[in-house]
Specification:
alpha+beta; 23% helix
Length: 226
């Protein structure tokens, strides 16, 4: 549940609800504003560690597609929420034709008018977050093994699933090259490799991310508009 994270949002109180997708709302979905750079400022009812917030984010994004709405839109929203580059986030939303009535990722509509509401904990950490644990760096005491087979399922935002025979030392760039090599029609596409809602840098080795056999990599596919 997301109860512990439903704190006070200083920028928009209505955005503290769990995300959802709903039916068309013409009075709201007819307009769109550019994505604003600022992120919500909020407090959690009780202090949380960064790891706990990230766990809730992953739980939310894993279940979000079960709501109404299109998986590719959820994928685009997730990529935009996790992006550290503002212009990249705007490009992702534009490519997916996502509308933002108030310029914030907390409320969005797709081109069909379906509503998507994103909770604030997917956009920023609470001001009272506890930096008591490490959330993104691998354990120094347990260095990853090198060169071991790592078969993984790769799920494209186009709906295609691939089974790739990777190595623990394979990088996100290697994943992109393999996807392009076995998938037709992506010659001019831009690919974005993600795991647990986070974009993987091109040179990041898979064994530096905590990925293990049986996990699923997401690859967002962005094609140029015609």
């Amino acid at each position: 549940t997301f109860d512990r994270l439903m704190g006070t949002c200083c920028s928009s109180p209505a955005t503290s609800r769990p995300a959802q997708a709903g039916p068309r709302a013409p009075e709201e979905s007819g307009q769109s504003r550019p994505l604003r750079a600022e992120r919500p400022v909020w407090h959690s009812p009780e202090p949380l560690t960064r790891r706990e917030v990230l766990r809730q984010r992953n739980e939310f994004w894993d279940t979000a597609p079960s709501f109404e709405g299109r998986r590719e839109i959820w994928d685009a929203l997730r990529a935009a929420c996790e992006a550290t580059d503002h212009e990249f986030a705007r490009a992702v939303l534009e490519s997916a034709r996502v509308k933002l009535p108030n310029g914030l990722l907390t409320l969005a509509y797709d081109e069909l008018g379906t509503k998507y509401v994103i909770p604030v904990f997917c956009l920023s950490f609470p001001q009272n977050v506890i930096d008591a644990d490490t959330v993104s760096e691998p354990s120094i005491a347990a260095p990853p093994r090198e060169g071991q087979p790592l078969p993984l399922k790769v799920r494209l935002s186009t709906g295609t699933d691939l089974q790739l025979d990777l190595q623990t030392t394979s990088t996100a760039r290697d994943v992109e090259r393999m996807v392009l090599g076995v998938t037709k029609g992506l010659e001019n596409a831009r690919l974005l490799v993600m795991f647990c809602g986070k974009r993987l840098a091109a040179t990041t080795a898979l064994d530096q991310t905590g990925i293990t056999t049986g996990d699923v990599l997401q690859v967002l596919v962005f094609t140029a508009r015609k």
